Amino acid sequence: MPLADNFTKLLIRGLLAGLIAGILAGGVAYVLGEPHVNAAIAIEEASSAGGHTHGSEEAPLVTRDGQRAGLFLATSLAGLALGAIFAVVANYTRRITSMAGPLLAITIATGGWLAIEAVPFFKYPANPPAVGDPDTINQRTLLWLATVILGLLAVTAAAAAAKAVSAHEFLSVRIAAPVAAFLVIVAIGYVSLPTINEVGDDFPATLLWEFRLSSLATQATLWLVLGLAFAFLTERASKEVEIAKKFAVR
What we know:
single chain; mainly alpha
C-alpha cells in the first residue's frame, strides 16, 4: 500500500534508517577503505621525506586514530542528513505515484545512489590522499557538484520518461524510455565537462582502483541500507496499523 503516514513519522523513520545506514557504511569504510588510505599516506610521506627535515615536519591537526574514530561520526551524520532528505523526497513523491511504500523507498534509494554517487563517480572518481593537486581542489569540488546536479537532472528525466510511457502496452518501451533518457543526459554532461587526471604515473594503479572501489562500496552500502531500512520500517508500520484495526474491530 502507498505511504500513508504523516510527515513527522516519515522524518523519524528516515532519520532512524539513515543512522543505521551511516553506521554500517562507516564499518565498510573502516574495513575496506582504511588500509588503502594508510598505504596512500605512506607513499605521500615517503615521497616528501627528501624535501623536509625531521625537525621541520608539522604534526597533523588530527591524528590517524582520531580520524578513524571520526570516520563513524562522519558517516553517521551523513546518514542522518540523507535520511532527513530521503523522508522529504518520499513525502513529496507519494503524492504523484501510487507505488507501494516499500517499493517507493527502494526506488528513491536507487535514484539517489545513481544521481549523487554513480554519475559523479564515473566522471570524477575518488582519489586517495596522495593524489591530487591542492591548488585545484576548489575547481575539482565545483566540478563534482556539477556532476551531482547532472545526476539529479538525469534521474529526474528518467522519472519523467517512465511516467510518460507508464501506460504503454510494451514492457520493453516502459523500460527503455527512462534508461535512454538517463543515458542521454549523462552522456551530454560527461562530454561537456572537462576531464581531470592528476594521478601521477608512479602511483600504484592497483592501490588507486582498490581505494576507488572501496569508496564506491561505502556509498553503495549507505544508499542500499537506507532504502532497505526505510522499506522495512514502512512495512512494519503498516503491519502494526493492520493489527490495530483488527483488534479495534473485535
